[in-house]
Amino acid sequence: MTNPDYTHITLLVDRTGSMERIRDDAEGAVNAFINEHKKVTDSKASLLLIDFDGGYGDEPGYRVIYDGDIAEAPTYALLPRANTPLRDSIMKAIIDTGTKLAKMNEDMRPGAVIFVVQTDGQENASREFTQAQVIEAIKRHEDQFKWTFIFLATGPDAFSASRDYVGTRMMQTNTVSNTGGGTSHAASTAYLAGATVAQRKGAREPDAAYAAEVDDRGNVEEVAPD
Q1: pTM higher than 0.90, yes or no?
Q2: CATH number of 3-222
Q3: Residues 223, 84, 34, 69: is their CA dihedral positive or negative?
């Protein structure tokens, strides 16, 4: 039996060059998401915070920023650069999350795993993993381990990118999209923070859909997935 009072969250953040135009809003949204979870004190949550880009010179593009109790997570700084190896980054984050949880005794493992992919663009730089490999990994973790994968899509390109994950719940059923402006990005992240907090508190079923669209004014419309 896993621990029903323990939730693990993996937050994979796109810090590629196109995020520069909304850097302040995007950085604030990541920190606001984490801070909303810090307010929950009656259950445990761990955070694996990762950001990614295509790398710059000798600097790696995939970085584990924090791995520990979400209550102790530091303030995140978003520094946009380079291109978008989305497939490789998702796969590496799945592997890192699985490795972390596999090291725990079963009764110490989280009862819920929430895996958020935040991106504003489509794949353009992966070299290690194919789309089929990533889809298979997501489906296996959804079906076998009951992980919740959520695609937080900023801008029209990112929303269309979610369709590349056909056969997974992350495609449309668990896609939260926004127009790409700072206000809409912040509002979509705030919506997702509230929904995942509700899941932690047991007020939202783990298999409930996370499907919503956010407009330029920050208005959130929950939509029925196709």
Answers
A1: yes
A2: 3.40.50.410
A3: positive
